[in-house]
Amino acid sequence: MNPEQSYINAFDLAARDYDDEFSNTWTGKAQRERVHYFLAKDLAKGILLNILELNCGTGVDAIYLSGEGHNITAIDASPEMIRICKSKADRYDTNKIKFIEADIKTFVSAEQQFDYIYSNFGGLNCLNQNELRKLSASAASWLKPGGRISMVIMGRHCFTEMLYFLFKGKYKMIGRRNTNEATNVNVHGELCETWYYSPTDIQNIFATEFTLVRYKPVGLFLPPSYLNNFYKAKPLLKKAALKMEKTIGTFSWFANWSDHYFIELQKKSL
């Protein structure tokens, strides 16, 4: 089985439990609210946009964005993810979303150009640097002049994860993300190659076609999803984490110390 098919099979299996294991959990909801908070600065201007969402997962963000009035083209390589997306869209009775089963490495945009491109929660961490450079060139061709791309990426360090491994005595795991090599991540029984990138890494990879607008932490104090059960029965800890995320977690400097970070780039003028 080739690596691409392994990815698809893994995320087909993950699709069935993704909302229960992440989207509908405390940490999943809290981190997504932070992403939407940062998105709102661009999207709440009374102008309806044509948005391309890459690696749309189970469609949570596509439905949110369509609810804000935007037109969404959402793609994912997993047939099962797309099936779940379409069933959700039917329940919400929205006609503003077009879901397409497609791999972002080979996706070819239709004639329409987009105002905005968006990818949430580490979908782009499945791409190596060369693949990200190709995506940068493709994204620039998909965007209208002045268009922007926002990505939520898993960085090279995670403050809460490092504290957890220190507490558990798993010292070799503390720096597991800080590598230029691929890390094999178990996704429902399939090992999927994953790369971790700092904000500077992403800025440099996209530098030919894009300029940096901003980047912000997502999950500086809000933990990774696998720690949700650790926090579940600790209401005071959750309350403190949320409060610190909304105050200290607004500073860009901390972006590479959070579980994810939000980074926004603008297409360069010709």
Short description:
With 270 residues, the protein is an alpha/beta fold.
What does this structure look like?
The protein has helices spanning 3-23, 26-43, 60-67, 79-92, 129-142, 159-168, 199-205, 228-232, 235-247; strands spanning 50-54, 71-76, 97-101, 114-119, 143-153, 183-187, 190-194, 210-218, 260-267. It has 270 residues and is α/β, with parallel strands linked by helices. It has one domain (3-267): Rossmann fold, CATH 3.40.50.150. The relative contact order is 0.16. Helix content is 41%, strand content 22%.
Structural class, please? alpha/beta
CATH architecture: 3-Layer(aba) Sandwich
The geometry reads as globular
Low-confidence stretches: none
- The number of helices is 9
How do the helices and strands line up, and which of them pair or pack?
Blueprint: H1 3-23, H2 26-43, E1 50-54, H3 60-67, E2 71-76, H4 79-92, E3 97-101, E4 114-119, H5 129-142, E5 143-153, H6 159-168, E6 183-187, E7 190-194, H7 199-205, E8 210-218, H8 228-232, H9 235-247, E9 260-267
Parallel strand pairs: 1-2, 1-4, 2-3, 4-5
Antiparallel strand pairs: 5-9, 6-7, 8-9
Helix pairs in contact: 1-4
